Amino acid sequence: MHVTIRQLDKAISLVCCPHRGPYRQIGQAFDALDSWTSGQAFEPARVFALYYDDPSATPPEALHSAAGVVLPADTPLGEGLERAEIPSGRYAVLLHKGPYPALEVSYRWLFEQWLPNSGETQIDAPCIEEYLNTLHDVAPQELLTEIWVPLQAR
User: Is pLDDT at 29 greater than 80 in this prediction?
Assistant: First the structure.
């Protein structure tokens, strides 16, 4: 596995469908968001998930996350949707290849191996996943997902 450090110079604005509960059930929020976007006259430019809580320290039913897409800034929000922002700053980015359930292995390596030995410090901001393709495009073993961990500025 390989981690790169990415400097995000400008915040990314999102339209999000919030989710409460186990992170593995965020697909419900993506389904709702996809249903809403499919009725619009535009295609999302990028697709993200924001994970606000530490699942090792927060009960599954209390976890807060959001499914998000990049859309034009003047897009009116549908019912139950909200705006969110991925802040500018430094991120450790790990590219995961494979099915979504296997992301747990990449997260474990990132937080148990790479981060403690990297000299980097995670800050209190959501971890992010960016989905570079989807099951509509490729087989599960070909899925590409970037995991972004927010880092302290240097």
Answer: yes
